[in-house]
Amino acid sequence: GNSVTQMEGPVTLSEEAFLTINCTYTATGYPSLFWYVQYPGEGLQLLLKATKADDKGSNKGFEATYRKETTSFHLEKGSVQVSDSAVYFCALKGAGGTSYGKLTFGQGTILTVHP
Amino acid sequence: DVKVTQSSRYLVKRTGEKVFLECVQDMDHENMFWYRQDPGLGLRLIYFSYDVKMKEKGDIPEGYSVSREKKERFSLILESASTNQTSMYLCASSSRGTGLREQYFGPGTRLTVT
């Protein structure tokens, strides 16, 4: 079955530091890949997405590249802000037309950014 | 603006009680989902529905049931609440069509069973 593995957290950074959160996956075919973010007290919001190999998703200064050869979708940001403090989830949607849009999530990574 | 709402943000129930969690979406989405979120485990799918009165088990359906009588509303039912069902419950919805069919999430219900 499909699975997603994220780097263990929590991650604590100073403002303006570089961020990487690792995500690797196991799936057959060509899944779609997502990063969701959950700010304190809120539900999840889609941060970025990629549908095929070598696609780069980007939003709000965050980027992730779909790497088929390494089955990875690592999240990066060049300069984090205090407002980026949140929980980040990597997720995949399996290939094929009968999945009804089901997502498989990683365990989440807590990011705390200090001034 | 798309919206998924959940009936309660916080809920405290006693062991053995029947618990109803309600979710409503205003986007005319066909698909709706219930997840539970636990630290270190991420989100795990309990049940989902791809149409009115249709439902499918997710990865952890034991101890739960669901109801979808109207397209916009998807209810999660804990038939007899237990302490190991203390968790954050998240509802989501998505459209059926082609393409990525992004899931939109509600704010969550934090349920405590004592």
How large is the radius of gyration of chain A? Answer: 14 Å
Structural class of chain B: mainly beta
Low-pLDDT segments, ≥5 res of chain B:
none
**Proportion of beta-strand residues of chain B:** over 45%
Q: What's the average pLDDT of chain B? A: 93
Q: Name the shape of chain A in a single word.
A: globular
What would the average pLDDT of chain A be, to the nearest integer? 92
Overall body shape of chain B: globular
Structural class label of chain A:
mainly beta
Count of discrete alpha- or pi-helical segments spanning 4 or more residues of chain A? 0
Characterise the protein shown here.
The complex is a heterodimer of chains A (115) and B (114). With 115 residues, chain A is mainly beta. Helices cover 0% and strands 50% of the residues of chain A. In chain A, strands 2, 5, 6, 10, 11 and 12 form a 6-stranded mixed beta sheet that branches. A 4-stranded antiparallel beta sheet of chain A has the order 3-9-8-7, with no helix packed on it. Chain A has a two-stranded antiparallel ribbon with strand order 1-4. The radius of gyration of chain A is 14 Å and the shape is globular. The termini of chain A are far apart. Chain B has no helices and 11 strands. Helix content of chain B is 0%, strand content 56%. The model of chain B has no long low-confidence stretch (mean pLDDT 93). Chain B is globular. Chain B starts with a strand and ends with a strand. In chain B, the strands form 2 sheets. In chain B, strands 2, 4, 5, 6, 9, 10 and 11 form a 7-stranded mixed beta sheet that branches. Chain B has 114 residues and is mostly beta strands. Classes of the chains: A mainly beta (115), B mainly beta (114). The interface between A and B is medium-sized, with 22 and 28 residues.
